[in-house]
Amino acid sequence: MTAPERDATAQPRRRGRRPAGSDTRAEIVTAARLAFAEHGYEATSLRAVARRAGVDPALVHHYFTDKAALFAACQQLPFNPTEQIDRAVAGDPDHVGERLVRFFLSTWDSVEGRPRIMALVAAASTHEDAARTLREFLAREVFGRVVAGLGTDVPELRGSLVASQLVGLAMARYVVRVEPLASAEPEDVVRWLAPTVQRYLTAPLD
Amino acid sequence: MTAPERDATAQPRRRGRRPAGSDTRAEIVTAARLAFAEHGYEATSLRAVARRAGVDPALVHHYFTDKAALFAACQQLPFNPTEQIDRAVAGDPDHVGERLVRFFLSTWDSVEGRPRIMALVAAASTHEDAARTLREFLAREVFGRVVAGLGTDVPELRGSLVASQLVGLAMARYVVRVEPLASAEPEDVVRWLAPTVQRYLTAPLD
Fold this sequence. Notes:
mainly alpha; Arc Repressor Mutant, subunit A; Tetracycline Repressor, domain 2; 68% helix; TetR family transcriptional regulator (chains A, B)
């Protein structure tokens, strides 16, 4: 079954009426936002989101390749974690820190990046459910993917240490805007921070 | 003039009536909160806070040793930056990273630490004036003090890099609570993060 077919066949399972031309994708995103807020990232399935949106599960898969892509759409993240993090991590393990910091900056150093970071941080610091969802998403889809690709010891610890530096970079560069880090050229930031991320990922920690 | 004398002589300069036993200190803190929000940390003087609170400037000095102490009271920070950071930085420069991470954890690893951090982060991510005040406070009284004590090159850059790691630690450990970093023993966190802070403070950066 191809994606367009799924899209067409999904209609009968919807609850209630749907006006012609309504935005099914937007309805799925709204349902997913509620599901993530209520149950967190881990416990939310694409099937449950489909049920809540009143659409066939195949329709959710039609619009979103996986749960990470759906979450990225909910949070208006400027990247798809599944594809892009795997790509950033692939390659020489001795330079993974450098690639990761560069990917981070290329993703967030945009006009839309700052307000998205601020919204994520504001939600996580005021709502426990938002903090939980972000924590589970970061652990599984961002830093979990980074360390899984490297096959090192203590992957969760390494992932959480990288998270501390990159979330801190987001806070210092985009939210609080501490100078000169806030206005520095991306390649300078890469040079300063890459050794830290590299150490957290691959150096002995004890 | 001793502090108690200042307290007594301050009454005539107040605007309006003051009921007996009113909390002058609390009034100064309220006036300071408004002044910091309107003008930022740098541009707010103790004299301007006194004027806004309708008290003699000497009375502000009676309750607060300096502007940093007044800001700490406004934000309910569990430490006085001026004294405690200078003390944490003093000593062998080869171990300043270790002392700084240990001081950070001893300050914030308390029951009250997490809600205070969350309030600071929530304010900075939703109000530009709060972000500015926090940025100016961190630059001058926290990371500015740290690097001033060391006399290294590019002090602002080093300060902002340390800020990125320690603010990130606060986010990962207290706000988002990424495990295992969130539940790790303080001395383990010191061991993992101290080399990063040490490098930002004293190693060649180019």
